[in-house]
Amino acid sequence: MATATERMFGKSIKRREDPRFITGRGNYTDDLKLPGMTYAAFVRSPHAHARIRTIDLAQAKAHPGVVAIFTGKDLTGVNSLPCGWLLPDLKVPPHPPLAVDTARYVGDPVAVVIAESQDAALDAAEKVKVDWDIRPAVTATAKAAEKGAPPIHEVAPGNVAFTWQIGDAAAVDEAFKNAAVRVKKRIVNQRLVANAMEPRACVARFEAATGDLTLWVTSQNPHVHRLLMTAFVLGIPEHKVRVIAPDVGGGFGSKIFLYNEETVCSWATRQIKRPIRWTSTRREAFQTDAHGRDHVTDAELALSREGKILGLRVTTVANLGAYLSTFAPAVPTYLYGTLLNGVYEMGAIHCAVTGVFTNTTPVDAYRGAGRPEAAYLVERIIDAGAAALNMDVAELRKKNFIPKFEHGYQTKVALTYDSGNYAAAFDKLLTMLDYRKVRAEQEAARKQGKLIGVGFSTYIEACSIAPSKVVGSLGAQAGLYESGIVRVHPTGKITVFTGSHSHGQGHETTFSQLVADELGVPIEDVEIVHGDTGAIAFGMGTYGSRSASVGGTAIHMSIQKIKDKGKKIAAHLLEASPGDMEYVNGQFQVKGVPGKSVPFGQVALTAYVPHNYPEGLEPGLEETSFYDPSNFCFPFGAHACVVEVDRDTGHVKVLRYAAVDDVGNVINPMIVDGMVHGGIAQGVGQALWEGAVYEDDSGQLVTATMMDYALPKADMLPMYETDRTVTPTPVNPLGIKGAGETGTIAATPAVVNAVVDALRPLGVDHIETMPLTAERVWKTIHAATAGR
Amino acid sequence: MKHSVKMTINGQTQSHEVEARLLLVHYIREVVGLTGTHVGCDTSQCGACTILMDGQAVKSCTVFAVQADGAKITTIEGLAKNGDLHPIQQGFWEKHGLQCGFCTPGMIMAAYQMLERYPKPSEEQIRHQLEGNLCRCTGYHNIVKAIQWASEHMAEAK
Predict the structure, then answer these.
(1) N or C: which end of chain A has fewer CB atoms below 10 A?
(2) CA torsion B138→B142→B146→B151, rounded to 10°?
């Protein structure tokens, strides 16, 4: 049989999934049409906070084509949507899939209309008459826990869901006493909407004859969807439910969570015994996809005269929205406070977080999830510290980097970093940028009255999520391992079943590269199956940059088992000892005797036609592995941005963007670069354009369309300059750290630091709130130069 | 009240009775069953539904099916000929111009008209011409490169 001659790991091969996407033959959930299909439309609260007096369905039920209408009261036996991360003393309010007596944010669903066509469902939904008793609402993060704020949940007095802290408060107090320089800034990390291009959708089909329920859903983790839905909400048996996440058009976190709509459709299909399809409109997506970020933070940094970081004190209010989304409590705590050590040696750190309920869309993980908030804070306050010391921002960073290490660095906030070489990444960035030249150009431009700014960021992220024991001790209600099944067919072809899920990451390519490399087979002989609980043993899905490092390692482990079994079979055929066998280039051979070998394909066939076979060995060649990492992995890097600010309009133009990332070993550089690019665009988007805005009085989300929420467009962004350093992780055998979120984490502070740097000659040293739209920058310039 | 519409989509004649309010994109997806054309928004911002209508790149969510009566439509499914990818499709593959693939059909159809208008577009022109098409995955870097690749290879083919 043919064998692969070149190493696939590390090669930028074209993606195997692309032919179907570029020809319009992808299979997204909304593409699915089933016989007897019905269509769902949700009736949602137009108010931020309102009691339901009555719901009148008479007119809606009479609408032609209506099959059924259900309200919250009809959903008997349906439990609250669960929260999967329980902090100590967390207040967990009920979260009914359809609001029963009170709606708590604009978009909160109160009824579902199911009809013969989408149009009929939408038309009839408009005829559902809800008699609303409108209550006062609170949407602003900083106001939620203020005295007199409207109470949102009985179980959460003062609208406080939790208070949480990490670090050493006394040590921080001491550090501040001894500091030569102290800086304090309010840093607001605004609310964002993920905006995966494919809106959420589901198709639920109950087969009365068998009792089987199939749910196609836009999910990053179909097994998690199934587990939460069956074990916690609907009380239907897990083994009678199959969840399929087919091609999914982007997630960025927003498709991790169990939502109201798929739960309601899965319940309703059992009632009407016909398939139901629901597809979100973009407006619904804005109103109901879990939002991201939304922190108001006061940060203080203590520095020595020489520029050593002595202490960091952080107080954050994190907006959780109206209900606890699936993993919401983890994001502003264990994915945030634990990352405040950054890549720096810090004398002491203390962070206190208050999670608050508001009358807004629930907030949960959005690309980076907690880590961008941490990096933004650290990198902004370091720039503020450099300004106070009158020190170059690059120099201050270099003074404080944690020195190179290969096996563990204990931070001040619980984590043990795996391996790091932070100065090397930063130095590479400075070279890439030609830092001195850039500063000289900036100086020359300033003399001509131009506002040019240079901004840096470094970052660390905890990904490869996650060691189950560790996250379990911190409140996670699930393990965070991954499964990988490698099935070798009798003909030597290979199907791999992974619990990881691709919604743009390119698993079908990168995982094939892993398998082809390890087994020395052509990549065409390998098929990757993901996204179907009916095919895959179990899985935890894709988020937290975990697919290659955790999912890939599970596959790697199964391959090793395949090789071990193959050696026994081959040894038997060659009348050798299994211990003397090795696997080289697709051949099982006696060590050092290339002529004495059996090809992979022959071993595969023998495993299934076991006539001449080792005694006591089971036939078949298929192995399953579950990989539970021993630690997180910690990718890191340094990014830089050069901007020009138009003094008259406040418009910010990104002139250059340079990134050096270290994600450990890389399977497919092209794919990793692509993820870095997209992450940067999202990070720049947060810095300059994006932001979900609630109107204070009405609680309306006024940025609920793509006309009002500014997503980055092609002509707003430059080409990105990217490079890498490679510091393999010792945590997993592949040395892979994770690459999905780097750009999003690093870009926002780099851009904001650059804008503040540009405005420095005008006396600006901080801008509290993003995005740095032309209007906000213009106002900042005017406030700074007023009276001059 | 229903209206008769008849149009050519990817060389095949289609004729149906439709409601006046039916959008062309829903006609293409739900009635004709060509699901390569996507719906990513409801305000004509995202461009995922871009098709060619009588040679013009059009967001098919901005057109009623009845307005397309008599038109010649090309969707993403009609771009490859005899199994050979169009150079723009090839360019997106070669240059990794897609990740989740959802915006891709619209991007490719928008690029089709762009390259008819500007066979040798500058980077700035490409970015400007893509203003009506949103992508959340790629940061546009490789989409620009994909269109540049297509431009070069289409010039060679001529």
Answers:
(1) C
(2) 130
Say if CB A90 and CB A162 are below 8 A apart. Answer: yes
How do beta strands A109-115 and A66-71 pair?
antiparallel
Predicted local distance difference test score (pLDDT) of residue A2? 41
The backbone torsions φ and ψ at residue A173, rounded to the nearest 5 degrees and listed phi first, read -55, -45
Note whether A19 contacts B: Cβ–Cβ < 8 A.
yes
Is A283 at the interface with chain B, CB within 8 A?
yes
Whether B104 sits inside 8 A of A22 (CB atoms) is yes
Which residues, including other chains, have CB under 8 Å from residue A151's CB and lie 6 or more apart?
A: A157, A158, A159
User: Count of residues for chain A?
Assistant: 788
Name which of B99, B105, B127 is nearest A24 (Cβ-Cβ). Answer: B105
Confirm if A131 and A45 have CB atoms less than 8 A apart.
Answer: no
Residues A371/A394, Cβ–Cβ less than 8 Å: no
Q: Which of A20, A197, A714 sits opposite B127 (nearest CB)?
A: A714
- Per-residue confidence (pLDDT) for residue B1, from 0 to 100: 86
- A35 to chain B, any CB pair closer than 8 A? The answer is no
Determine contact: A107 vs chain B, CB below 8 A: no
Strands in A64-200 per DSSP E: 66-71, 102-103, 109-115, 129-134, 160-167, 181-193
Q: Which residues touch A598 (CB under 8 Å, ≥6 apart)?
A: A569, A570, A573, A574, A587, A588, A589
Specify the pTM.
0.97
DSSP-derived 3-state class of residue B37? coil
CB-CB under 8 Å, A26 with B36: yes
CA-based nearest residue to B76, from B43, B42, B110: B110
Q: Is A712 on the interface with B (CB under 8 A)?
A: yes
Distance, in angstroms, between B86 CA and closest chain A CA? Answer: 9
pLDDT digits (tens, 9 = 90+) for B133-158: 999 999 999 999 999 999 999 988 87
Q: Give how far B148 is from chain A: nearest CA, Å.
A: 13
Nearest Cα residue to A72 out of A93, A88, A84, A55: A55
Average pLDDT per 10 consecutive residues for chain A, totaling 788 residues: 67 98 98 98 98 98 98 96 95 98 98 98 98 98 96 98 98 97 98 98 97 98 96 94 98 97 98 98 98 98 98 98 97 97 98 98 97 98 97 98 95 96 98 98 97 98 92 90 97 97 96 96 97 95 93 98 98 96 95 93 98 97 97 97 98 98 98 98 98 95 97 98 97 96 97 98 96 98 88
What pLDDT, on a 0 to 100 scale, did the predictor assign at position A5? 57
Cβ atoms of A197 and B135 closer than 8 Å: yes
Within 224-263 of A, beta carbons closer than 8 Å to B belong to 247-250, 252
Q: In angstroms, what separates the C-alpha of A283 from chain B's closest C-alpha?
A: 7
SS3 content of chain B, % helix, strand, coil (to 5): 40, 20, 40
Q: Which of A19, A22, A705 sits opposite B108 (nearest CB)?
A: A22
Question: Is there a contact between A705 and B43 if contact means CB atoms under 8 Å apart?
Answer: yes
Q: How far apart are the first and last CA of chain A?
A: 80
A403 DSSP assignment:
P
pLDDT in tens, A342-379: 999 999 999 999 999 999 999 999 999 999 999 999 99
ipTM, 2 decimals? 0.98
Q: Rounded to an integer, what distance in angstroms lies between the CA atom of residue A207 and that of residue A34?
A: 12
Residue A318 exposed, middle or buried by CB count within 10 Å (0-12, 13-18, 19+) = buried
Contacts of B129 (CB under 8 A, 6+ apart): B110, B114, B117, B118, B121
